Records
---
Amino acid sequence: MPAVTVENLLSLPRVTVPAGAGERAVRTVTTAPSGFEGEGFPVRRAFAGIDYDDLDPFVLMDQMGEVEYAPGEAKGTPWHPHRGFETVTYIIDGIFDHQDTHGGGGRITNGDTQWMTAGSGLLHIEAPPETLVMSGGLFHGIQLWVNLPAQDKMMAPRYQDIRGGTVRLLSTPDGGALLRVIAGDLDGHQGPGITHTPITMVHATLRPGAQLRLPWRQDFNCLLYVLGGRGAVGTDRHPVHTGRTAVFGAGSALTVRADEKQDSRTPDLEVLLLGGLPIREPMAHYGPFVMNTRDELERAFEDYRKGRLGVVPAVHGMSQDGL
């Protein structure tokens, strides 16, 4: 699980927690069920079973893989529409190509992120390059959906290409954890992702036995998803492992610990930390659209059927995924 790494963690700026910060207790821990997405690649549904009030402004998240593809097995998604939210694809291992009908796109690989604001609507496709399909190889990533407030749902689409080398790298006072700030602010350190809805997104790697204590905005919610490894969260040390999501309660700091012994496949504890300012608006979500009302959903489907969200480039010789 390479993403972005450094040899000497002690060379990085350190994250500290102010004295007297209130610790966030763990409210729930859930286990993600497995499923398939797109053309059939395996995913874990990280937010399954969690109330939307605890997720807001996040809508869903899938852990894609970790899977070792044999030659000819790698899969992606066909062309499909989105409206009303932002999609975030973070690639930890492997390669994905993105293209959308608003002119955005590119290739993302180890540690890169593509941040697509669907806004008023577009079509896009995400797929492994032909070289990966032919050769096979490791693939592992995350797709996250971030809601947009009503006032921004019909804004013009936008694409951000966030290279792994631009993420903000931080560590803990003892150098036991590497923090990659992809978006938002952590202890005054800003990640490169530009978001319409205020959020923080951090990928943390904890060495065996390490403890991570972070400051966290009090007005944000707080979610932790385990990408790999074993550990415990909160002062009560709720056990977590690969595929588990912890929801934290109110407070201004959180604690994560890595078990002393990790398995050989995942030598460290790898977690994704998410926080955001809840939008607290009605949400109507169905398929690829996230709107505020049922009427707006119906209008989105009608606009898609009439080609108002874009047309698949003829060069691909591919049809749109039916809805």
---
Amino acid sequence: MTTFPKYIPQSDPPLPPWETLPTMYDLPSDNLEEPGLPDYFHFLQPLLLYLTFQPINWNPELVFSAADLNLYYDLQHPLWYKRPDWFGVVGVQKQYQGEDLRLSYVTWQEPANPFVIVELLSPGTEDEDLGNKQNLTDKPPTKWEVYERILRVPYYIVFSRYTDELQAFQLVGGHYEPMNLTDGRLLMPEIGLSLGLWQGSFRDIERLWLRWFTLAGELIPEPTEEAAAATERAMIAEQEARDAKQEAEQAKTKAAQLAERLRQLGVNPDDLEELL
């Protein structure tokens, strides 16, 4: 009787750990007590807003903006705060009392409240950001309530990177009213700027970004764009100088050839210059 070796099934090779361990989608940079804390987009988008927030009718030394800085708003509850993803203020010095970098923005010690606030929607923050969350008794008011009723911020902007939806509200008669877009932008004539969506590359990331424009729709350049534009202008000027030099040399050569031809015909070019 023939005896065959016993068949032992072979198990599949184990999966590498990066295929079984949690991914960044399972481990976001959030805090259960304060949902919606920054991811990388929450770093780049406020940075672009910061770099391009340049109100044309204000002294740059009296323009301040910040991202993820605690905003204290209530004298009766001095520990209550909100943390806007980005906000801009006009009429205040860049440093606190002109002397120190701000640790927070304490409204009762500052000469002006924020002029514009931008919130970037995150999963779990939509209801509060858009004013759909009801305030609980004895709890701090929602962002919407603080921005609208307490600080009376003239412009409140909400942007979602997931849907690329831009929603904007302007304080009218003490209440926020939806703003209409003009040529795809939100006009803020008080500071000579407009805010809109721009498809382009910022810090080598190509996507739809929220950024500042002039009222006429021209981009407010950020420093790397200004440097690139300056380099391009220098290259154009250098090329124009080379072209002008080449044209001058060509004209000089043609003049010399013409003078020689006149001499061959028995005409002195110098005599013609005297007649002219």
---
Amino acid sequence: MRKTLKRFLPNHESIHANRWLRPFSNTLLHPRLWHLNRHSAAGGIALGLFCGLIPGPFQALAAAAGCVLFKVNLPLAVVTTLYSNPLTIVPLYVLAYGVGARVLGLRENGFVQPPELGDLDLGAWLTAVADWMVGLGKPLALGLIVLAAIFSLLGYIGVKAAWRYWLIRTWHGRRARRSGGDREE
């Protein structure tokens, strides 16, 4: 699993050679941002899940800044933000609104349906969605924070558990191969 992930990660030379990233190369080339172990992977996934609910195109930038701050795996964090995309953002925001309304104790259903794409071009639709989100106010904002924290916590625990499960299976496999090899002699 780890070797497969490393094949897709950019190396230090590609970052240093990129003219857009060159001014930030001292920060971006910190070894802990690229090291792949269970702590950096879990932190990167958790940070990516949290930043994935940030509105607008700032998800990857926020994830990168968080990685620099917390020294967790940068590529995993940036890629993980992609779970919120044009297909999933509306259901995620509807869920966030519901969570926020429940936390605030709102009883009435003040939810307004999101705009449909219909005959609108993409730019007009995005503007309509932005206006729709602003109109939802406090329940949405609080719900996004709570939902992001829940996703982040579940992602962190999930990666730690999956990594531990894989490690234990690997140990048991080695032990079985060793004990099988001793019996043949």
---
Amino acid sequence: MAEQPPNIEEMNARSREVFRRVVEGYLESGAPVGSRTLTRDFSEKVSAATIRNVMQDLEYLGLLGSPHVSAGRIPTELGLRMFVDGLLEVGDLDGKDRETIDRTLTSNDHDVTSVLDQVGRALSGVTHGASLVLTPKHEAPIKHIDFVSLSRERALVVLVFADGHVENRVFTPPVGQTPSSMREAANFLNSIAEGHTLSELGSVIAREIETRRQQIDALARDLVENGLALWENKGEATERLIVRGRGNLLGDGESETDLARIRTLFDDLERKRDIAQFLDLAEEGDGVRIFIGSENKLFSLSGSSLVVSPYMNADRKIIGAVGVIGPTRLNYGRIVPIVNYTAKLVGKMIADRS
């Protein structure tokens, strides 16, 4: 669990202003902020020595750190958390950003995943970060299911939904499967699947297999259970994640430490092994959530921040999420309203299409 920052209200006005200016300066430039820089436009006339003393106190509290021998300071993760929770001023959504995001949803493309891919590209473009879009599972009732043998090691399941949507997925069939066992499994599934969504089908199949265990042979039952694992995407949730704009994380003049951090992040994004947690992060609270550095369960080793918000369907059920990932010195005040607006727009698009 992340360490709790001091209460911002317990700081005096001078300490609060020094802290705010150091954080804002760092978020803007990415460079340490020194006492002489602060004295030039401080709200009251104070010496650089006084400012340095305040900065040392803030460093003692764990809110600021010294990356180099120089007198400049940068905020720690604890400091960034306190700034985001207590001092962050969230701006209004820029008109051009709004237009860019709106244009992605005026497409006549009926494929939701394709539209969400366009949303991801737009989100990456306007934020200059990497965008993450978790697409919803298809939740229309199932109309028909077929198994097709492709080879001894490969088979295809064809899912036809009541709304006309069709999904084809290749999987490894159980050893010893035969065309007859596949037909029997398909017939069994079609006898119980119609009218149920994929999410509902798991429990329905479990009940039916238990009550009709003697009605299907062992190979067909094995095939049903194997197929079920595929349809629920166990271990394959990564296919639902769209990542765009990774190149935005590579800026000019990055230090070796920054490049190593970004390479770690790229590796995380490539593997996407913990993406099932992405929606969990979004579901833990309403609206936009900000995860800074080690708070970020998905990319805790990369020194990055994640700004994420869930989106809902017409039934107000959370079905996916959108987010932006970048360095901890993200422009949070600008990115929060962008992510918030995008999530609401995606939710409305999903609801309208359903």
